[in-house]
C-alpha cells in the first residue's frame, strides 16, 4: 500500500508517528527541548537511588511513633524531595505538566516491585484525592495520574474513587505542623464504589509527596473508620528524610 493510500485511509496512523518525530516539548526539569517527557540527562538523574531507598515506617504526626492509624506503616518513595525529582513534581503540580505523572508513577511501581512489599493479599491502590474545586483549577489530580501509572507498572488494581475529599482546605505547604493536622481533620471520606471483594483487600495509598505524614494520617483514619485497612503509603518523593532517618530506631 502506498503512503498516499495509507494517508487517505488512516490519516492519524500515518501522521502521528511523523509528528512525534518533529514535535518537542521542554523537559520539565531543565527546559531543554525533548521528544520524551524528560530529556536523557534528567531521566538519568531520576533513576531511583542505588541501593533503593528503603521503605521506612511512619512516625505518626499526632500520636507519636507507637500509636495512631499510620504508625508502623511502610512509606515507599522513589527518592528524596530534592534536585531533579523535586523539579519534576513542581512541574506536575504547578506547571500544567500532567504528562510528568506517568514516568514518575512507573518508577514508583518499579520501586515497589524491587522491594517486594506485597506479602499476603495484594493491595488495592487508592490515590489521595483533591477537592473538586482544586481539581477544576488544576484540571487533573496528580496523585490519581501517578496511581494509574503505578498500577500499569505493577498490575495492582486501582480504585480511583476509593477516597473522596469532602472539604476544600488550605494547601498544606503553607501551614505549620499543628495547623496541618487541624486543616485535614475530617476532610476525607471513603467513596461509595467499594465492592465486597475490594473491601477485603488492604489499601495502598498513593500521593506525590510525603512531608509530615498528616495527609496520610487523615486518609488512613477515614479508611479505618469505614472498617478497612491500610498496608502502606507510596509516594514519588519523601521530604524531611534526614529527620525521618534520625527518628528511626537503629537496627
Ligand atoms: Zn532535562
TrEMBL record:
It comes from the Bacteria. Residues 50-70 are annotated as: Disordered. SUPFAM superfamilies: PRTase-like. Residues 61-70 have a biased composition (Low complexity). Signal peptide: none annotated. This is ComF family protein. It comes from Vasconcelosia minhoensis LEGE 07310.
Amino acid at each position: 500500500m502506498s503512503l498516499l493510500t495509507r494517508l487517505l485511509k488512516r490519516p492519524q496512523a500515518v501522521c502521528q508517528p511523523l509528528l512525534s518525530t518533529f514535535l518537542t516539548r521542554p523537559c520539565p526539569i531543565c527546559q531543554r527541548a525533548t521528544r520524551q517527557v524528560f530529556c536523557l540527562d534528567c531521566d538519568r538523574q531520576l533513576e531511583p537511588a542505588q541501593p533503593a531507598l528503603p521503605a521506612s515506617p511512619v512516625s505518626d504526626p499526632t500520636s507519636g511513633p507507637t500509636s495512631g492509624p499510620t504508625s508502623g506503616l511502610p512509606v515507599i518513595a522513589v527518592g528524596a524531595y530534592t534536585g531533579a525529582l523535586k523539579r519534576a513534581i513542581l512541574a506536575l503540580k504547578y506547571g500544567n505538566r500532567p504528562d510528568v505523572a506517568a514516568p514518575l508513577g512507573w518508577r514508583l511501581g518499579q520501586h515497589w516491585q524491587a522491594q517486594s512489599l506485597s506479602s499476603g493479599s495484594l493491595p488495592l491502590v487508592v490515590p489521595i484525592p483533591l477537592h473538586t474545586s482544586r481539581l477544576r483549577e488544576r484540571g487533573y489530580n496528580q496523585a490519581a495520574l501517578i496511581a494509574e501509572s503505578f498500577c500499569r507498572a505493577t498490575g495492582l488494581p486501582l480504585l480511583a474513587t476509593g477516597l473522596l475529599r469532602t472539604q476544600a482546605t488550605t494547601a498544606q505547604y503553607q501551614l505549620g505542623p499543628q495547623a496541618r493536622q487541624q486543616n485535614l481533620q475530617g476532610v476525607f471520606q471513603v467513596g461509595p464504589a467499594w465492592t465486597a471483594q475490594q473491601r477485603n483487600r488492604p489499601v495502598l495509598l498513593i500521593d506525590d509527596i510525603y512531608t509530615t505524614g498528616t495527609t496520610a494520617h487523615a486518609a488512613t483514619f477515614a479508611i479505618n473508620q469505614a472498617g478497612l485497612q491500610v498496608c502502606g503509603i507510596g509516594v514519588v518523593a519523601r521530604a524531611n528524610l534526614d529527620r525521618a532517618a534520625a527518628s528511626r530506631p537503629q537496627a
